[in-house]
Amino acid sequence: MQIHWTEKLVAVIASGLLLSFLAALIAGYYFYDLDVADCVTDVPLFSKGEVHQIFDPTNYRSKYEVKVVAKMWTFDPPVIEVVAGSDIDFYLTSTDVIHGVIIQGTNVNLMAVPGVVNFARLSFDQPGEYSFLCHEYCGSGHQSMAGKFVVKSNEGVYRPGDIATAPVAISSAALAGRALLDKNGCLACHSLDGTPILAPTFKGIFGRTQSLSDGSNIVIDEAYLKDSILHPTAKMVKGYQPLMPQMNIPESDLQAIVDYLKSMKVGTP
Ligand code: CUA
Q1: 42 with 141, same domain?
Q2: Could you report the per-residue pLDDT of 238-263, keeping only the tens digit for each?
């Protein structure tokens, strides 16, 4: 039996199309880094929600690791506070049935599956509140299963090149101390204006009565400042995490920094 030429033509076009799709897939994989969506992680399973802020002093941005547990019929934690512009690594699991999440203001759409940790990276450019909802019917309380991101402005978060105006007249030696704070990245975590970042503010630090994590109270003096710069985790201020790296600062620099901090007395504006 003869094959009609139109049938041959259709067969040739169809095969040509298949081959071109295959070529596009291969080209995409090798030249454009396209890959199968990869949202399943090897992060160990967790059963409690957590928000971790990680500060990257090299580019002065915050990063967050957020672990969220979906369960009938809430998200743990229900409210997540972050700073605008930060990268947020969002890990999601469930401790009972299958849930899901969509996050307003992003294109994140994940399933929350028991026994599996799913992942998405997101960020919010603008401060505000962004809801997230369960989008997988999970029982009688499904419609109330929601949470929100509270995105704070990143103003007041130190960036390189920001020059804070000194509140009081200070000596040139102390000004050198101010420059050293810049150079060593101290102002990424210690603000000068009273804003808590990841560490106690330098505003009014000298002479302040401070509660420490061991329950004692001290008055901050020169010895404590030097000691805290050289051994940051030895006498921790209450309420803060031991995040500060061991600093290697020569004695002369240390004195200049402390002189500058002494100018930030209690009660100075
Ligand atoms: Cu959880 Cu619907």
Answers
A1: yes
A2: 888 888 887 788 888 888 888 888 87
Question: What is the residue with the minimal CA distance to atom 1 of ligand 1?
Answer: 99
C-alpha 138 – ligand 1 centre gap (Å): 4
Q: Are residues 5 and 71 in the same domain?
A: no
Q: Whole-model pTM?
A: 0.51
Residue 140's domain is classified under what CATH number? 2.60.40.420
| Nearest to 92, CA basis, from 110, 109, 78, 106 | 110
Structural domain containing residue 61? 38-152
The model's pLDDT over 124-182, given as tens digits with 9 standing for 90+, comes to 999 999 999 999 999 999 999 999 999 988 765 544 444 343 334 456 666 777 778 87
